[in-house]
Amino acid sequence: MKYTIDDCTIIDIPKKHSDRGSLSLVESNNSIPFEIKRVYFTYDIPSGAERGGHAHKELFQIIIAASGSFSITIDDGQNTRDIFLNNPSKGLLITPGIWREIKNFSSGGTVLVMASELYNEDDYYRNYDTFKELV
Ligand code: TYD
After folding, report:
1. E strand or H helix that includes residue 113
2. Distance of CA 41 from the midpoint of ligand 1 (Å)
3. Which of 53, 28, 63 is closest to 103 using CA atoms?
4. How many folded domains does the chain comprise?
5. pLDDT tens digits, 37-69
6. What spacing in Å lies between the alpha carbon of 100 and ligand 1's midpoint?
7. Is 54 annotated as catalytic?
8. Which domain CATH number covers 72?
9. Range of the domain at 130
10. In angstroms, how far is the first alpha carbon of the chain from the final one?
11. Global pTM?
């Protein structure tokens, strides 16, 4: 199936707030539309650094700004969209076949990612021209 940037929706992450703070929770196939097989997070990101710069062939992901903020540009080879994430109760669904660039990190900006598959380098497009040709 060919996905587009319109399939990359913002998902509400359920939140419990009390006078002791906030708790956001993510459940496979419940708050998000796939089973989570892997979680990773990127942090200590220097000012001006960019992450991403790739697309996936089969992988679905949810990206959450667990702290701080950053912007994500998503690109399906035809159209692009910029999304600003700064709220741990919002997750961006990224489907297969979407190039993403993550930048404009605030101090402490932490990218929390939940993924539908284990790590597999063969699932990446890391060259934009190859991605563009194939999608
Ligand atoms: P990469 O996916 O390019 O990170 P980002 O999208 O945040 O820029 O991965 C960076 C490096 O980490 C790369 O060498 C692959 C490795 N890596 C793993 O070994 N396992 C993983 O689950 C992930 C996401 C990356």
Report:
1. strand 110-115
2. 10
3. 53
4. 1
5. 999 999 999 999 999 999 999 999 999 999 999
6. 13
7. yes
8. 2.60.120.10
9. 5-134
10. 10
11. 0.96
